Amino acid sequence: MRTELAPGARAGRAAAVLAAALTAAALAPGVGAAEEGAGSAESAGKPGADWESWRADNEVSDMASLQRGARNFVSYCLGCHSLKYERWSRLGQDLEIPGRLLQADLLPPGDQPTEYIQTSMPAADAQNWFGKTPPDLALMARARGGDYLYQLFKTYYVDPTRPTGANNLRLPNIAMPHVLSELEGLKRAVFRDVVRHGEGGTEIHEQVFDHFEQIAPGRLGAAEYDGFVRDTVNFLDYVGEPTQTARRALGIWVVLFLLVFSWLAWLVKREYWKDVH
Ligand code: HEC
Q1: What integer best gives the mean pLDDT of the chain?
Q2: What architecture is domain 13-242?
Q3: What confidence tens digit (pLDDT) does each residue in 70-120 have?
Q4: pLDDT tens, residue by residue, 252-263
Q5: Does residue 55 have a pLDDT over 90?
Q6: Residue 142 Cβ < 6 Å to ligand 1
Q7: 169: left (phi over 0), alpha (psi -120 to 50) or beta
C-alpha cells in the first residue's frame, strides 16, 4: 500500500460537486462571448490551443496512480456512474488495497465487497436531471481511448447558455456537469471569428476555438489537476481490462522462460550434432 485513500470518499459527494458546477454560470458574467481577430498563427502557445494533441500518458502498471484513481472515481464519479463488470473485492485485490481500507474508504455504506460497483443514482432520476442517463464506465476507456477521456476533463469551459453552466470542446453540449470544477477552477473559452468564402462570394462566419482563460482558481494547481485527471483515466483504463496488470507482469516471465528454453534447446542440439560433424 503506497498511497493512503482519502477518508470520506462517498457517493454523496457528487451532489455537492454538481451544485458547484451549476453555480459556475452565475459566477462568470458575460462568459462565452466570441472575440474577433486573432489569426491562427497567433494561437500557437496560447493555453489550450493545442488541446487535441494532449495525451493521457497514463501507466497501468503504476499501482499508486491506480489507487489514487480509484479514490478519485469513488469521490467524484460513483455518484452518477457504475462500473458494472467490476466487483469491489476484485478492485481491492488488483490494486492491493487491504480489505479494511477498502471497507472504510471506498465501499459505500451497506455495500458488500462481493457486489459490483454500482451507482446509487436511479436511472430515471438521472434521465430527468441531465436529460441523459450517465453511461456505465466499465468499458468507456476501451471505447473512447485514454486520450479522449483526458481531453474531456481538461476542456470544460463556462457556458451560461447550457443547463449545467458548462460546455466542453471534446464533447460539445455535453450533458455531464463539470464535476471537477472545484479542483480545476473555471475557464472561459475564447473563440475567434473565421470568415470563409462560400459559393458566389457569400461570407460564412465560423466560431473557432482559440484559447482558454482561467477566470477562477481551483483547489489544485495546473500540474496537480493534470495528475488528478491522469490517475482517474489510468484507473478507468485498468477497469476496461482488469487482467492487463497481471498479463503484463506474466509476460516478462513468459519471455524469460522462452529465452532459457531456447538456451537449453541449443545445448541439446549441440550435444546431438557433436558426433555428426
Ligand atoms: C452529476 C452526475 C455525474 C457525475 C458526478 C459524473 N458524470 Fe460522467 N456523465 C454524466 C452524464 C449525464 C453523462 C452523459 C453526457 C452526455 O452524453 O452528454 C456522462 C457521461 C460521461 C462520459 C461519456 C462521455 C462520452 O463521450 O459519451 C464519461 C467518460 C464520463 N461521464 C466520465 C465521468 C467521470 C470520470 C466522472 C468522475 C470524475 C464523472 N463522469 C462524473 C453525469 C455525471
Answers
A1: 86
A2: Orthogonal Bundle (1.10)
A3: 999 999 999 999 999 999 999 999 999 999 999 999 999 989 999 999 999
A4: 999 999 999 999
A5: yes
A6: no
A7: alpha
Residue 22 near ligand 1, beta carbon < 6 Å: no
What is the structure's pLDDT at 197? 87
> Residue 25 Cα, ligand 1 centroid: separation in angstroms?
19
Contact by Cβ (8 Å): 46, 210? yes
Task: Determine if ligand 1 sits within 6 Å of the CB of residue 172.
Answer: no
Q: Which amino acid is at 26?
A: A
Average confidence (pLDDT) over 149-163: 97
**b/e map 127-163, b = 16+ CB within 10 Å:** eebbeebbeebbbbbeebebbebbbbbbbbbbbbebe
203 exposed, middle or buried (CB, 10 Å; 0-12, 13-18, 19+)? Answer: exposed
Of 71, 75, 80, best ligand 1 pocket probe by most atoms within 8 Å of the beta carbon: 80
Residue ranges per structural domain of the chain: 13-242, 251-277
Q: What is the pLDDT of residue 36?
A: 39
